[in-house]
Amino acid sequence: MSTALAIFVKTPGLSPVKTRLGAEIGTEAAVRFHRMASAAVAAVARAAGASLVPHWAVAEPAALVHPDWTGFPCVAQGEGGLGERMGRVYQALLARHGSVLLVGADSPQMSASLLRGAAAALRGEAPFVIGPSEDGGFWLFGGRAPVPNRVWTSVIYSREDTAARFQQALAGEGAVTPMPRLFDADTATELAAVRDALAALVAPLPEQAALLGWLRGLGLG
């Protein structure tokens, strides 16, 4: 059973990128982080092995053939809020694969073993898996069963109770296996935590090491 992995990205120059982070560290640095973090997550996806089939989930229709998003097939997020867009990508990939994992590009400290573990969990008893983030959201969601549209759209995203409310909405659809909690980088404080998590990796990939070096040069607290 193959597992599709969708990496959600926005394209600099076509959409605002990491605006909350940019307000603290500057727009240029925030865009640089997004690009380097996307490259790191892509490297992790490749390292996870052939059982994962990575895709770029691209926000802008015009960017489906953009040079930023090469190496993997692209799938359109489409219109609407984050829940609608995640639901659309999940449904499209589930129609072609046995299971689907959705991740963002702002937790570049994720590892290949974490992705493999999430995919393996979906071959177990629970049909869903979630990786909560420290800010109350989630850095990963996956499943092998359909998720009703009401689950995706009933949740307010980017809040401290987003993951909890998403799991409550999903409760009637099946059990959820929890994954380790990670930071994602929406603020300078979280970016420093991502830096520290990258520094703690035993065997970082070259793209992760490059991002770590750049983050150290920012002089974050």
Automatic annotation (TrEMBL):
Name of the molecule in the record: DUF2064 domain-containing protein
Pfam family, one: DUF2064
Domain of life: Bacteria
